[in-house]
Design brief:
The structure is a single chain. The chain is mostly helical. It has one domain. The chain is built from 14 helices and no strands. Helix 1 runs parallel beside helix 13 and helix 4 runs antiparallel to helix 8. The longest helix is centred in the C-terminal third of the chain and has 29 residues. The two termini are about 25 Å apart.
Length: about 290
């Protein structure tokens, strides 16, 4: 077995581990929303992540290219800042399993943004993939949490917007941070968002919720796990993977994430139909075609 094969196998191993980490995110968001509102959840997720990264920013302070601060902010906002709030608002109405399924659009948006802004190659096969993926997403949005009779849940579009953000972030990492340590990318992109998020958090009734809501400690535990593992650890692994492979390969983490999200949704009593599975399959077929040259 040559070195290239070993490297490729290690990348797939990293991808599977990352899929499990991120696949658990949607059920953790659901549990955090029991006590907290979407603003509090988003601020907590960013604030806890920022505090965890603060020592790393200090440790690497001499290695950080501070002139790239606007790019760090852009990567942070698109990769975690905006999605933290978009998913929180969406999951007040959208089930955790449906959120995980729609998140599979990320590789398709990664390709589209790469073509439009970063001059990635385009082909008819990739066009078929994009169209197929969007048909699957449309089916999921139409189905909602249980069926067509429940009506379209427009909050699902917030998740679509979050996947656009993710697609933008991974392209920027590949285009502008190819020689920057993944630890620096992760720590800086969160650290610059954490202080404003914590200030915003304490303008809400967060302290009153913690004092009087009996579910608050459980929800705080859920968002803490989400921040430390689904955000801090996962982001470092993801940026490393994008650097070593490509933005499109890294975004294919969404092949396995929906399986984990579905498993948690079923375990938590959410309704999953054959049409939900069909919609997911269309998205993943679309993702497969977008990866073909």
């Amino acid at each position: 077995m040559n070195l290239k094969s070993k490297v490729q196998q290690s990348h797939w191993g990293i991808l599977i581990f990352l899929s499990v980490l991120w696949g658990c995110s949607f059920i953790l968001i659901k549990k955090a929303l029991i006590a907290f509102d979407p603003i509090q959840l988003g601020c907590l997720r960013l604030g806890i992540s920022s505090l965890a990264f603060a020592p790393m920013v200090w440790w690497h302070r001499r290695d950080i290219e501070w002139k790239m601060l606007p790019l760090f902010i852009a990567v942070g906002l698109s990769g975690s800042g905006l999605p933290a709030f978009l998913f929180a608002y969406a999951q007040t109405e959208v089930s955790s399993s449906l959120a995980g399924l729609l998140n599979s659009l990320t590789p398709i948006w990664t390709l589209i943004i790469g073509i439009l802004l970063f001059r990635l190659n385009f082909s008819n096969l990739k066009l078929i993939g994009v169209v197929t993926g969007f048909v699957g997403a449309g089916m999921l949005i139409l189905m909602g949490n249980g069926g067509i009779s429940n009506g379209i849940q427009w909050q699902s579009l917030l998740i679509v917007a979050a996947t656009v953000c993710y697609g933008s972030s991974v392209n920027m990492v590949q285009a502008f941070f190819g020689h920057t340590k993944p630890m620096i990318i992760s720590s800086m992109s969160f650290f610059v968002l954490g202080i404003p998020a914590l200030i915003w958090l304490f303008t809400t009734d967060f302290l009153q919720v913690m004092a009087h809501d009996p579910q608050a400690k459980w929800s705080l535990g859920a968002v803490t796990i989400l921040a430390l593992f689904g955000t801090v650890l996962a982001s470092m692994i993801f940026y490393y993977l994008v650097q070593k492979t490509s933005a499109v390969f890294g975004s294919t983490v969404t092949y396995l994430m929906p399986v984990v999200a579905l498993a948690w949704g079923i375990f938590d009593g959410e309704t999953i139909t054959i049409l939900h599975i069909a919609g997911l399959c269309l998205i993943l077929v679309g993702v497969y075609f977008t990866k073909k040259s």
